[in-house]
Input
Amino acid sequence: MSTRSLCSLMCGALFSLVLLLLLAGCAASGGSHAGALLDQDYQKMSNAQLTAYEQQLSDEIADSSASSGPGLSIGLGLGSWGSHVGGGVGVEQSVGGGGGSAPVALRDRREAVRVEMRRRGLLPPTVPAP
Output
């Protein structure tokens, strides 16, 4: 392997590492809004605040369902053929599905908020299925 090929390979590996750290930082920054929503005490809210809060929960659930996934996959490949050396990087982030525990907690909270809204007369009562 020549010095030039080794230098090229090292530059590719360094680029891959920087890209990995950047993507990991972006992935870790999500979910803070869901925590702030779950920290609020909906039972002390006014009717207008409660209605807006239910909408915020629904919006956050929709956002997390559309943008979250089970994770991030990053691959680094190296290979040689004869006197040639090559490298490659693959990055994949799954969309949809998964989402961790935040969407479940948000759905549970939204259901509790809707029960409170029904109790206050802000939503019609649910009719049991026949």
Observations:
- The CA atoms of residues 47 and 122 lie 8 Å apart.
